[in-house]
Design goal:
By secondary structure, the protein is of the alpha/beta class. It is 38% helix and 16% strand.
Length: 220
């Protein structure tokens, strides 16, 4: 099955509290990413679409162990009632599924993240041509690290990015396409929509997840 790319926006709830870019840029990406992650997880996406590869990009990977543990705790207490489509602990899907997380080249938490979720879940991107990217020193920064193994470097720089995007060209998908996840209707409206960048092909315009949970494409 083709991959999805969870692409966080810069803006999040904090944009109404601050008036400068540094606040928005610091808060936006990780906040939006964890919202996307929990939305996909509790909606049962990794359970119902176990072969679907999803990559969470552009805010590092250090947040993953913390968020994985927090989701587990909430799921253990209320999962049966409020997230019935999520059949296993969220950590089980993350450590044994098809979800990938992009590390920053110099991220100090990377060895711990590898220890918790495995080196087969980590990818990287150059972030070119963004103003804050390390390009052209991204690859050399990762290769020069002394705190991760050569095997991990090989996977992060090549094998895992290739695995996470395999099949993308099968449906002619391209970067920048978009997918939206909508929770059940409440009062005639859908609330808390989560947009995931990747798909807008008519052939995947709608997928039912169970009940009124749906995935819809073509939201560019």
């Amino acid at each position: 099955m083709c991959p999805l790319r969870a692409q966080p926006a810069r803006r999040a709830g904090g944009e109404t509290r601050f008036d400068s870019f540094i606040y928005m840029h610091t808060i936006g990406r990780p906040t939006e990413t964890i919202i996307q992650c929990v939305g996909l997880m509790y909606a049962g996406i990794p359970e119902k679409f176990s072969k679907l590869r999803i990559a969470f990009l552009e805010c590092g990977a250090g947040w993953v162990p913390y968020w994985m543990e927090r989701m587990d705790e909430e799921w253990e207490k209320r999962g049966d009632v409020e997230a019935p489509l999520c059949k296993q602990k969220p950590s089980e899907y993350i450590t044994h599924g098809n979800w990938f997380f992009a590390t920053e080249p110099e991220e100090e938490m990377l060895p711990y993240v590898i220890e918790r979720i495995g080196e087969d879940r980590i990818v990287f991107a150059s972030d070119y041509p963004h103003w804050d990217a390390l390009f052209p020193n991204v690859v050399s920064t990762i290769r020069g690290r002394k705190d991760i193994s050569e095997r991990a470097k090989e996977k992060i720089l090549g094998k895992m990015p290739m695995r996470s995007t395999a099949g993308m060209t099968d449906l002619g998908l391209k970067s920048g396409d978009c997918l939206e996840i909508a929770p059940p209707r409440r009062g005639g409206r859908r609330e808390n929509r989560i947009k995931i960048a990747f798909l807008n092909k008519p052939s995947v315009s709608s997928l039912r997840l169970g009940g009124e949970h749906v995935i819809k494409g073509n939201f560019i």
